[in-house]
Write a structure and sequence with these properties.
InterPro entries (chain B): AtSIBP1-like, BTB/POZ_dom, SKP1/BTB/POZ_sf
Oligomer: heterodimer
Structural class of chain B: alpha+beta
Pathway (chain B): Protein modification; protein ubiquitination
Number of strands of chain B: 15
CATH topology of chain A: 5 helical Cullin repeat like
Protein name (chain A): Cullin N-terminal domain-containing protein
Number of strands of chain A: 0
Order of helices and strands of chain A: HHHHHHHHHHH
Organism (chain B): Lolium multiflorum
Strand content of chain A: under 5%
CATH architecture of chain A: Up-down Bundle
Protein name (chain B): BTB domain-containing protein
């Protein structure tokens, strides 16, 4: 009999630990702090094993909803901050494109690390509830929050047009590899969706 | 084995074999113009050679008639050579022949007589497979040593992995459990679990520190986990740590181990553990185990044996699980 009571106590011990509201909030906070640190490229405090365990525990004990919302919000706010820093990037077309591509690479690296930390959420909670997987979430934030945003969109189209014209003048035709900004932008836009690439590359010169 | 009968068989009817080569030396034809060899074994079949001498020499090669030749006929790639001792020594070689051999009618090779007296027939098998009636089906090889190399390689690899773990050969990661430290290899862990793989990919702390903190496992359970990963786990060790291994398999995404644990937990459900198993099944989405527990409780009526604990269980258990249990009750409930 005592053995059976031990079971009840042991099986539900998590309700006092991992299921405790303070612990849940603490775990969510740790993950969102990590999202911030990863975007800031400040990795000294980011311990993968610890964060994975916290995210795993949240999802295992049916707190996937809270974790998902927290991660989504944290990523959105980081992307907003990136847009802000891009808005002040140099006025010239070339340096703007260069800055945009560097920021894009930073964003994709961050999304990849975040996705791995919340891997269990992506594997169980996301398909079970029909949410958007983290990678697609990251692409969507960049597509709608950055390239299509009012502040970036027109500058991007204009910068690409200028760069293309400059290449034609110089007779340099789309040399692949480093330094080819237009190719980099095309690659980025393609990853965001075939329609997105079309939208920007085929766009007529903005004059209105 | 002596199959040859009467005048067909002589003292020189024996076919000697080595490796894939069969050789029959015929000293004399005697009074007959037809000779058949003693059977000789190559691959899984007993074979015969026969020679018929008229103006030319007709050589036949065929498997011993019977069930084996019918059901698993040999598909052979081979060449023949007939040599007369001479002098002068002369010989003639057939082209490479590839065909299905069922009976003595399937293959005959005609050779011009080049000399008289003693001669030798060589059969060199280049490949030998079990033929199929269906041309598209791939035939299987019969050389007894084929497939052995994979077995030896698997066994040897397991031995190497086992040594890597037990002797910590070039171990490059330290695992801190609740009550002890273990050494392992990043590459091996990464190959078996997507979580460990990610752990060492990004420029996060572990990549530099090469230390993993597993704060929810004791050193014995974690040894069992490494035992599974490195192939050294013993049955009793698995048995003892099943629940911890299941938790770890779920956490680290090791599908094979998770399936093993579920199968094992299904094998010994009792009224003493059924509620615990049900909870575990729900927590780790083990549909088979959950179904097993619900059937045990409601279809086999063991719910009456756990009456004392069920209240406590419902008090703590998740609503989702309680609902599923209720639906199971409804499905077996037969109101009068």
């Amino acid at each position: 009999m005592s053995a059976r009571h031990q079971f009840s106590a042991a099986a539900f011990r998590w309700q006092e630990t991992d299921g405790n509201p303070d612990v849940v909030a603490g775990n969510c906070k740790a993950v969102t702090n990590a999202v911030r640190d990863i975007y800031a490229q400040d990795m000294t405090n980011v311990i993968f094993g610890d964060l994975y365990r916290r995210a795993y525990s949240l999802v295992l004990h049916k707190r996937g909803e809270e974790l998902y919302s927290a991660v989504e919000a944290a990523m959105a706010s980081e992307v907003q901050a990136l847009v802000g820093s891009l808005a002040v990037a140099g006025p010239s077309g070339q340096s703007f494109l260069r800055e945009l591509l560097a920021t894009w690479r930073r964003h994709t690296a961050a999304v990849s690390a975040i996705r791995d930390i919340v891997m269990y959420m992506d594997r169980t909670f996301v398909p079970a509830t029909g949410r958007t997987p983290v990678r697609e979430l990251g692409l969507g934030l960049w597509r709608d929050g950055v390239v299509r945003s009012g502040r970036i969109r027109l500058r991007l189209v204009e910068a690409v047009r200028l760069e293309k014209a400059r290449q034609e003048e110089d007779g340099v035709v789309g040399v692949p590899g480093s330094g080819d900004l237009v190719a980099g932008v095309t690659e980025m836009l393609t990853e965001l969706g075939a329609d997105v690439c079309h939208e920007f590359m085929e766009a007529p010169t903005v004059s209105s | 084995m002596s199959v040859g009968s009467g005048s067909l068989s002589g003292p020189d009817s024996r076919v000697e074999t080595i490796s894939r080569l069969a050789q029959w030396r015929i000293d004399t034809f005697g009074p007959c113009s037809y000779r058949r060899s003693d059977p000789f074994k190559l691959g899984i079949w007993n074979w015969y050679l026969s020679v018929e001498k008229s103006r030319s020499v007709y050589v036949r090669l065929f498997p011993e008639p019977g069930r084996l030749a019918k059901e698993q006929p040999p598909h052979a790639r081979f060449l023949l050579r007939v040599s007369w001792a001479g002098p002068p020594r002369r010989s003639t070689v057939s082209p490479v022949i590839e065909q299905l051999l069922r009976t003595s009618d399937d293959f005959v090779w005609q050779v011009e007589v080049m000399s008289h007296g003693r001669f030798t027939i060589d059969v060199e098998f280049l490949d030998l497979r079990i033929g199929t009636n269906n041309a598209t089906e791939s035939s299987s090889s019969v050389w007894p040593n084929e497939g052995v190399v994979q077995k030896v390689a698997s066994k040897s690899t397991l031995g190497c992995l086992s040594r890597m773990l037990t002797e910590s050969i070039h171990a490059d990661v330290t695992i801190n459990t609740t009550d002890g430290v273990l050494k392992a290899h990043k590459s091996v862990l990464a190959a078996c679990s997507p979580v460990f793989e990610s752990m060492f990919v990004h420029d996060l702390k572990e990549k530099e520190s090469s230390t993993i903190d597993i704060s929810d496992m004791c050193v014995d359970s974690c040894s069992a986990l490494l035992g599974f990963v490195y192939g050294t786990i013993r049955q009793e060790q698995f048995w003892k740590h099943r629940l911890s291994l299941l938790a770890a398999a779920n956490k680290y995404g090791i599908g094979d181990l998770k399936a093993c644990c579920e199968e094992s937990l299904l094998e010994d459900i009792s009224s003493g553990n059924v509620l615990e198993r049900l909870h575990v099944a729900w927590l780790y989405q083990l549909e088979k185990l959950k179904k097993g527990c619900l059937t045990y409780l409601f279809v086999f009526g063991k719910i009456y044996d756990v009456r004392d604990e069920i209240n406590g269980f419902f008090h703590h258990a998740d609503r989702e699980l309680t609902l599923e249990m209720f639906q199971e009750v409804l499905s077996v409930w037969k109101p009068i």
